[in-house]
Amino acid sequence: MTHSRTRPAAGQVWNPEDYIGKAGFVAELGRGVLDLLAPRPDEHILDLGCGDGALTQRIAAASAVVTGLEPSAELAAVARQRGLRVIEGDAHDPFGQVQYDAIFSNAMFHWLRDPQQVIRNAFAALRPGGRLVVEQGGFGNVAAVTTALRAAMEAAGCADQARNPWDFPSPTTQRKRLETAGFQVEEIILFSRPTPLEAGMRGWLDTFAGAFLQDLPGDVQHVIKTDTERRLTSSLLDPEEGWIADYVRLRFHAVRPADG
Ligand code: BEZ
């Protein structure tokens, strides 16, 4: 397989310690989409954006032959320490010659610069009859957080430097992309999943908002994050349960037709 060098998705730079410490919930909450994948023994499965490999390991535990594809060298190294096979690469580049039985992805598609290109790549890398099973942020995901971030940037006089790195499509938009690439959509659903943030809103912003604020000096980022937290206190901070983010998930299962 040929893959280009590591290119962090949409300007996001992952720190493995932060990812594991503050984003471990991402894999925990990925169990539903793993059930939809239903990996079978000896199936060849590609995990797009495998991160630290926590979910990839569960696919391997079903005796599937799983390969991760991950653009961050640091996260790929952590996944390899779990004994997983991981290719360092960007999903926007072709995935190579292997024809997979299934391609899986959790919490990665919303980082894509060009989702249509990646969907085309997935189609080309599946055997006829193979399936693409994905969960990602969907339409309306972290809308309150994004609105507060933008307001805080505006208050700090740097609204024009906001870099929204995320794509949160509706089912209609994503279905259209899938069908344009030749997929048959078996199921596509959008659902709200309020998500408790163990590391708080500040931990979430430190881990995930880097790409949004990437053009700004550290001290300005600090001011904006503090103001964002303050703006969200009345809507996303529960006195008993703590910070809960307004996550909305898009989950889909699409098939490359047997004659496609
Ligand atoms: C998500 O999983 O919905 C998400 C993660 C990081 C940034 C934005 C959204």
Name a few traits of the molecule.
alpha/beta; 9 helices; three-stranded antiparallel sheet; binds benzoic acid; seven-stranded mixed sheet; disordered N terminus; Rossmann fold; 260 residues
Write the layout of secondary structure elements.
Blueprint: H1 16-28, H2 31-37, E1 44-48, H3 54-61, E2 65-70, H4 73-81, E3 85-88, E4 100-106, H5 115-125, E5 126-137, H6 143-155, H7 171-181, E6 184-192, E7 195-196, H8 200-208, H9 218-236, E8 237-238, E9 242-245, E10 248-255
Parallel strand pairs: 1-2, 1-4, 2-3, 4-5
Antiparallel strand pairs: 5-10, 6-10, 7-9, 8-9
Helix pairs in contact: 1-8, 5-7, 6-9
Describe it:
The chain has helices at 16-28, 31-37, 54-61, 73-81, 115-125, 143-155, 171-181, 200-208, 218-236; strands at residues 44-48, 65-70, 85-88, 100-106, 126-137, 184-192, 195-196, 237-238, 242-245, 248-255. 38% of the residues lie in helices and 23% in strands. It is built from 9 helices and 10 strands. Helix 6 (143-155) crosses helix 9. With 260 residues, the protein is an alpha/beta fold. It has a domain at 16-141 and 167-197 and 244-255: Vaccinia Virus protein VP39 (Rossmann fold). The protein starts with 15 loop residues before the first helix and ends in a 5-residue tail after the last strand. A 7-stranded mixed beta sheet has the order 3-2-1-4-5-10-6, with helices on both faces. The structure holds benzoic acid. Residues 107, 110, 137, 141-142, 166, 208, 247 line the site of benzoic acid. The site of benzoic acid has 8 residues, from loops.
